[in-house]
Structures are given as C-alpha cells and as structure tokens.
Amino acid sequence: MTFATPQDIRQALLAGDEIALIDVREEAEFALGHPLFAAQIPVRRIEAEARWRIPRPDTPVVVYDNGEGLAADAAALLEALGFTNVRRLEGGLGGWRAAGYELFEDVNSYSKAFGELVEHNRHTPSLPAEEVQALITEKADIAILDARRFDEYNVMSIPTGQSAPGAELVLRARAAAPDPDTTIIVNCAGRTRSIIGTQSLINAGLPNKIFALRNGTIGWTLAGQSLDTGRQQTAPDPEGDSVEEARVTARRVAYRAGVKRLSWSDLDHLKADRARTLYLYDVRQPDAFARGHLPGFRNAQGGQLVQETDHFAPVRGARIVLSDDLGPRADMTASWLAQLGWDVFVLDADFSGALDTGPDGAPPPRGPEGRYKRPYEGTDNKQAAMQAYLDWEYGLVAQLERDGTHGFYVI
Questions:
Q1: Which segments of 69-182 does DSSP mark as H helices, in order?
Q2: What is the pTM of this model?
Q3: What pairing do the DSSP bridges indicate for beta strands 162-163 and 2-4?
Q4: Which positions of the chain have pLDDT values less than 50?
Q5: What domains lie within the chain, and their CATH numbers?
C-alpha cells in the first residue's frame, strides 16, 4: 500500500488535478473535523457507494481515518472493487492536522463556506425573523419561498411559506410574485440555501425586493416564533412568457459565471476522454426526472447539488454536465457550480425524443447508523446547538482564507 502526504493532497487541489479524498469514518465522526474537500463514505458503505460516486476506476483515491484502523480495510475494499490508484493519507487526520492544515466541521462544509463567501462579497440582503413575522401578521404583500427539498419543507416551515426548491426559484418566483411590488423572502433551515436562493433571484434580475430570511428556521425558532408542520403548498408552475424570461435571464447568469454549453456531439467527445471523470446530472425534481430523462443522466435536484456537492461529486477536479428540459434550472445550478470551482457544462438537448424513465439506480439511502444529527433538522433541536451552528457558519469565510485551497469566486 502506498501513501499520499498532506502536501500531495494540497498540491493536487491547487493544481486542479482530479482527486477523491475519502473519509472512511462514520458521518458523526466526519462532522467533528475533516479537510475542506474531503467526502465521506464509511467503510461499511464502500461496496454500495464507491463505484457509483467515483465512476472512473483509475481515479486517484486517498482514504483516511483518525487512527481507528479503518483506512487499510477501506483501501483493500476499493482495490477489490477494481480501483487501481488507491493510497492512504500518511498520518491520517492527525497527519493533516500536524501539517498545519485546516479542519472543517459539520457536513457539506465547502458548500456552506461558499454560501458565506457569497453573502460576504455580495452583501446579500436579509431580514431577521422578527421583521418577517411582523410582515406576516400585518398581511403585507410578501411571498415566502422555501428553497429546501419538499420533504424538509413539509416537516417544518415558515407560516404562509411555499415550497420552491433551489433550482426552481428562478422559474417559480415570477409565478409566486407576479407583481414587482411583492417582496420575496427566501428561507431554508439555516443560511446557505437562503443566501444562494436569494442571490440567484437577484442575479437573474427579478424586479422585486428580495431578502433571505436571516438564519432560516433556526433563527425563527431562536426568536421564539412558531413553525408550521405538514404544509403542502408549492409555488405555482411557470406559465407563458415567464418561462422564456427565466430562460433568457438564467442563461445570461450562466454566461457571466463562465459556464460552457454542449451539443450531443460535444458530450460524446467528453465521454470519450477516459482520463477525466464525468458526472451527468438532471437537476429537475425527482418526479419530473422519473417521468422522462436523457439516457445516462442521474438525478440531483439543482439546489441540493449546490448544497451537497461533496456527496454528488466527490471527485474534485471532475467535469459536470447538467440537463434540464426548460433550461433555467440547469443554467442557475451551473452558475453556482462554476463559482465553486467546477468545470461545468450545460447540455443543449431536445427532450421530445426517446427518454429513459424511472429512477437512476443510485445506491439505497443510508440508515440512521452513524448519522450526524444536524442542528437545523427536525423540530426537537436544542437552542444551544442551533446557536453554535450559526456561530460556526459565521466563521467560515475566515477559515476559507486560512485554508487557501478553495479557488471559489463570486460573480
């Protein structure tokens, strides 16, 4: 078994080389501290997940633990699955720490850090929970759009809120708030998807006043305000001219971010490059994906692909191609992935031909074993844990600067 030093990993990240840095501990331990671009696959899930999440068998893969003795077993499992370029991190997590490199807490850390960078650089406007509650009470002309997955919205939501998962926002906000005098407020459970959703609408040039709900449902709860449960209201489907307007504005945003566009023949050219990992994602909602999607594409809701990029694309330095039957969802998602430092493309494709149906064959979801309890999920979180989580997010911009490997930019 060969080893990679922490310096080897850092050099690969700075050079933009492909690398999959895999933490093989359980998620709860991973959340206590890990390198910025580490992804997490526990040893017990390697056989189920590794070939799906790391599709090219000669991808450089580096595994590590924190001295528990898991990395050797993980490397052996990966090699048995056909991976040919597997190394262990010299010294494990302790070696990374001893090299003086940053450790990031929580999960989806680099996407969350990027969200904080967006707010820091663009001064994304937000309103505190108390002001939003006052607007609801006085029946002001507002539309509250929840940028999380529908199932998260259904568990707990801001009163009067409508579900509009991240990539749907630019399409559905025009239908939810057709009057430019209506104020739009975007929320999530914490901060990231609120910030990204709000900035998406601003970037797309909507004429409304647009704000993030500061600190999401966590801020709402800490303010002593009540959440709704079981809501089913989704933001209206786009109609008529609003679809074309969204298409034009979203493409303009993608262009500003440096997103490239592909034809089918261009995509065939990328597929033929066996030296690069290629992820193909349809960014629509799961029900739309299941009714018909382009062959070879997997499903990742656009907002979640930006929020959980380490899960959907653990090979840093890979290429990502997005598809969407209408266009704006892929363009807006791609604009954010580009700013996150990814080599990302949007496929210009016709969905009127033969399509595949059903799910994409992803591995079965993980159970509760070893799972990290997110301070922003559910309705039974301790206030101290929620406040500590917010305090951690506030410090991410400074931590990114200390780490120095991210390569993010903000348009």
A1: 71-80, 92-98, 109-122, 129-137, 150-155, 169-176
A2: 0.97
A3: unpaired
A4: none
A5: 2-107 (3.40.250.10), 114-239 (3.40.250.10), 243-347 (3.40.250.10)
